[in-house]
Amino acid sequence: MFPSILIVDDEPTILQSLSGLLTDEGFEVITANNGYEALKIIDAEAPDLVLLDVWMPGIDGIETLKEIKKSTATLPVIIITGHGNVETAVKATKLGAFDLIEKPLNIDKVIVAINNALNFRRLEEENRYLRKKTIEKHSISGGSNPVQALKMQIATVAPTESWVLIKGENGTGKELVARTIHQLSPRAESPMIDVNCAAIPETLIESELFGHEKGAIAGSSVKKRGKFELAHTGTIFLDEIGDMSLATQAKILRVLDEKKFQRVGGGRILTTDVRVIAATNKDLEGEIENGRFREDLYYRLNVVPIEVPPLRDRAEDIPSLTEIFLAEAAASNREKRKTITSDAIDILTKHAWPGNVRELKNLVERLAIMVQNDAITAKDLPANLSDSKATGGELFSIEDLDKARVAFETEYILKKLAGHDNDVEKTAAAIGVASDYIQTLIAERKA
Ligand SMILES: Nc1ncnc2c1ncn2[C@@H]1O[C@H](COP(=O)(O)OP(=O)(O)OP(=O)(O)O)[C@@H](O)[C@H]1O
Fold first, then answer.
1. What ligand 1 atom has the least distance to the C-alpha of 308?
2. From 3.40.50.720, 1.10.8.60, 3.40.1160.10, 3.60.21.10, which CATH number describes the 311-446 domain?
3. CATH superfamily of domain region 142-307
4. How far is the CA of 269 from the centre of ligand 1 (A)?
5. Residue spans per domain, the chain
6. Which residue owns the Cα nearest ligand 1 atom 29?
7. Is the whole-model pTM more than 0.80?
8. ipTM above 0.90?
9. Got the DSSP string for 87-124?
10. What is the pLDDT of residues 374-384, one digit of tens each?
């Protein structure tokens, strides 16, 4: 299909000569001799590009451009102006004209401008398509109540400018939550820049965050822009915030407060407009008590707290997540999608998943590659998953109900403790028993 170009001009000679030349170049050409007609044609025939003369009787080119941008903002418009008309040029650019060409027209320049505009439009469309695909690929799956509640929280906070602190165990999907908030926010057209606070060595953190000038850092002869500069007008995602040193916390706090910073070795003060989303798997309140985290930074970041629940608290999502990961694995390995038997799903559902969704995803990916048959069965699951099978088996081999009850309770409390970083108070609150009860159980096990 040839790109279609609408030429709008009140001079019949220009319409005629331009359409002849552009038709020879392989474009499909439509013409209009005034603004009203142009708007009607755009509505009915959706051309790929408009060449629009400024001086026309009735609504002039500038007014027509305004109307076009109101109804079809992505349609590229190239304005044809009289020689040296700077005022019109400025107006048209402000209104979103893609390019301006001066009369008398040079056909080579017209063709270059048309091709540039069409290429730009194609890239924009590709970009939109890829963004949509990314959102679909990285969406938060799960129909359990905790996940539904999480999605509601995300939908509420995303369109605002509020800062968010995402809490949750390893692999629960904190980064996915951050990405979803960014993608649903008005900043989605700008980037979300990740900073893994635990992974950057202390000596490099300042240049990573704020950038550095040429020669300011040993071993680097080029200027580098930092994360706060790259995230300008977008979102900065401070992951593993609980692992930052106190010195770095002070530096981050300053830039978050002042929204200004300097590159290492640079004198110029740079301003940054960022939305901050932070994440942690640590109990930051405990870290504050132990003097490892600044209280002022905590309150600055914790404007909207979001808790991502561990997978064991939403076990009903495990079957659907497994199916999704099997489908993803099949697509990326270009293989037939494997099925999984119900007894295998049963074992997966009972497992405690200390590594949460990441652990489940990795396991499913591995099984999809390693299992030779079309169906994954209970036999194919690794031994560490059989702890829940074994526990079940052992429990059933206990003849006395009271003893079985104690064995189950011990196993249950220990698993819950592990899931709350061995924090007795938190576990007690979560499962609804007194903390003394858990302390006694631990003491008895040690004895
Ligand atoms: N609800 C979900 N639906 C689909 N995929 C998910 C879901 N939650 C997590 N995942 C996937 O699990 C993996 C781990 O998620 P993510 O990296 O977001 O976890 P995290 O909490 O940030 O981990 P860490 O604490 O280790 O940084 C990713 O591949 C992510 O796409």
1. 21
2. 1.10.8.60
3. P-loop containing nucleotide triphosphate hydrolases (3.40.50.300)
4. 37
5. 4-132, 142-307, 311-446
6. 358
7. no
8. yes
9. HHHHHHHHTT-SEEEESSP-HHHHHHHHHHHHHHHHHH
10. 999 999 998 77
